[in-house]
């Protein structure tokens, strides 16, 4: 995943893998939204932690995962029917960071970007990355500071991501500052 790709978000030593959407079919499959891992990578995690909207948690064992349009379709051993799977809808899937596959050279996960300072090449502070939104062309960094900035998360706008320094250097598109 490149700095401009959609990825998980972090909370402590765990990373958000994605959010469970609606059930699909009768065997307990669910659609997994906001996930940049492949079906094989999800399968290799083995178990994940499900967190519900009310703070409840459960350990789920990944039984199957496959690509489904622009999403993943997943099935868990603990949810063998559509009705059982429906109880997991809108929950988040989390896994320990160390169990995630290596993002690769020059690539990062979103959880590594969230909260980083964003500065222009000229050294002007814009704020911090609060979110990464998907779009048809490329993801967009939502940067919050004195105002909110929407920065295309792609070259030539993203110049450098320095995780150790906690800084993303950008060159905002021409005219963005006047909007």
Number of strands: 13
- Our estimate of the beta-strand percent is 35-45%
Shape summary: elongated
CATH topology of the largest domain: Elongation Factor Tu (Ef-tu), domain 3
Describe this entry's structure for a reader.
- It is a single chain.
- The chain has two domains: 10-97, RimM (Elongation Factor Tu (Ef-tu), domain 3); 114-178, SH3 type barrels (Roll), CATH 2.30.30.240.
- The chain is 9% helix and 44% strand.
- The chain has three helices and 13 strands; from the N terminus they run E-E-E-H-E-E-E-H-E-H-E-E-E-E-E-E.
- The chain has helices at residues 39-45, 82-86, 110-113, and strands at 10-11, 14-24, 29-33, 47-51, 57-68, 71-76, 92-96, 117-120, 125-133, 140-144, 148-152, 158-162, 167-170.
- The chain has a six-stranded antiparallel barrel. A six-stranded mixed beta sheet has the order 11-10-9-8-13-12, with no helix packed on it.
- A hairpin with a 3-residue loop joins strand 10 (140-144) and strand 11 (148-152).
Write a concise keyword list for the protein shown above.
179 residues; mainly beta; Elongation Factor Tu (Ef-tu), domain 3; SH3 type barrels; six-stranded antiparallel beta barrel; six-stranded mixed beta sheet; 3 helices
């Amino acid at each position: 995943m490149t700095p401009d790709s959609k990825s998980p978000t972090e909370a402590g030593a765990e990373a958000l893998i994605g959010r469970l959407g609606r059930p699909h079919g009768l065997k307990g499959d669910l659609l997994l939204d906001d996930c940049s891992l492949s079906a094989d990578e999800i399968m290799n995690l083995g178990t994940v932690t499900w967190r519900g909207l009310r703070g409840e948690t459960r350990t789920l064992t990944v039984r199957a995962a496959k690509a489904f349009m622009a999403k993943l379709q997943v099935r868990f051993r603990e949810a063998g029917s559509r009705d059982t799977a429906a109880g997991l809808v809108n929950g988040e899937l989390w896994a320990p960071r160390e169990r995630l596959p290596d993002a690769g050279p020059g690539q990062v996960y979103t959880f590594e970007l969230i909260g980083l300072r964003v500065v222009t090449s000229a050294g002007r502070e814009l704020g911090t990355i609060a979110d990464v939104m998907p779009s048809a062309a490329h993801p967009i960094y939502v940067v919050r500071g004195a105002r909110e900035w929407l920065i295309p998360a792609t070259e030539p706008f993203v110049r450098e991501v320095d995780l150790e320094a906690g800084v993303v250097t950008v060159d905002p598109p021409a005219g963005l500052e006047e909007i």
